[in-house]
Amino acid sequence: MENKHIIIILLVIIVVLAAAIGFVLLNPAHAKQPTKVKVTSDKEQYEGGKLSIELTDLNRTPLSKEVVNITIIDKKGKVVVDDVVKTNSKGKAKLDLDLKKGKYKVNVTYGGNDNYTGNSTTQKLKIKEKVVKASVSEKSSQSSSTHLIMGEDGYYYTVDDNGNILENLGPSSKYYPNGVYYPNAEPSSKYIDKSK
Hints:
This protein is mostly beta strands.
């Protein structure tokens, strides 16, 4: 009779151990941490711009070397970009945009891994026509020539010798995102007299 009690106790111990081992194997030792993915670039850009994203955990710790999917859909519902980027040591990544003027929807998706859950976000994107960098050269006529200047408003202009504005060439990248850059632009004060 005593042997039956010992066998029953051993069977109960084996069942409890099996249940405990099964629980440990089926439930990971640690839960996955939530993540946050966001688009950090401007919602309005010029043609030829870049889409920038950032991937972090909820404590804002960057997640590096992670693959993030980017899908961009035009206003007709057609997928025009379906690409992946890999985050750098700061949890950031960029994708060159080869999109024409128009309105788009951006979907950014991180699938997660063994330690982190996935996450996704969407954003509207408006692409504006890029200001074309014109090659401006000094043209000599009988009495005047043209000059490339940067105005005090941060825009480039061509002016004549008297400071008359002949053409607006667009915003400078120094002051406006996605602007243009003319390395040979002169200061406006050289041709435009403020004392008038």
